[in-house]
Amino acid sequence: MSTLELEPILAPQKHPLKHFFERLFSHRSGTVGFLIIVLIVFTAIFADLLAPKPYNFMAPRERLKPMWFMEGGSPEYPLGTDSLGRDIASRIIHGSRISLIVGIASVVLGASMGVVLGLMAGYFGGRVDSLISWFMNVQLSFPYILLALFLMAAFKGGLPTLILVLAIGGWVRYARIIRGQVFSVKEETYITAAQACGISLKRILTHHILPNAFAPIIVVASFTMADTILSEASLSFLGLGIDPSIPSWGQMLADGRDYLGTQWWIAFLPGLAISITVLGINLFGDWLRDYLDPRLRL
Prior knowledge:
By secondary structure, the chain is an all-alpha fold. About 70% of the residues lie in helices and about 0% in strands. It has helices at about 5-10, 15-25, 30-45, 45-50, 90-125, 125-140, 145-155, 160-185, 190-195, 200-210, 215-235, 250-255, 265-290. Helix 7 crosses helix 8. The longest helix is centred in the middle third of the chain and has 37 residues, at about 90-125. The protein is elongated and about 75 Å long.
């Protein structure tokens, strides 16, 4: 074998993180999605520094003020004010915190619930699988928005309740993925060998079975987070989200719906923020799905 033929084999492998970003930045839509996510996270972290005014500061004399470039607008309120004279730019900036907190917390909680129940259903099978599968089928047959409305109304809303409700709505996706993965690998030779060696059940599940489902879980989590942000906005729009004193994009949409014909920016701007955030997550999630697919790896 010639030296030229040996070079690709002997070439050092790239660091996984370096390879990840090289692949990411070579993909246009994935890069756009990633940059949008970075911008939203940066905005949420430094909201107190970026917001022109406190999000609940009211100036009744400045109510319904248009954006700064429109007639009657002012640089002091670059995106205008709402019906109570609150700065829309400041409320949109602070609203990004709620979207990220609710999105991340509900996805982590829902994924944890789904992974545990999916592992139990797939590994033990029998009655355990039948019981968990029955719960999954019941939830899938029930309109989720009705369940969410009922729970939010019953527990008087609030951020913890909202996160729990959204997590309950998403755990089934993870459970079905894990259950299918466990069924496909639990009869493999290396699982049988691990059992014969006396390796604990916990270690078999977490070190031998769960890693095989890690990639699809990450992909599902990225798309679920976008759905969760939309669900939070929908519940807040209906008045069943978090405390009205805390700025939320869905709540801002509800506040501006009565002014769509005149002061359209009150509802349009938070709606645009929701759309851009969901678009960024979906673009990045779509690229991540391709990146983690072993059939598409170079």
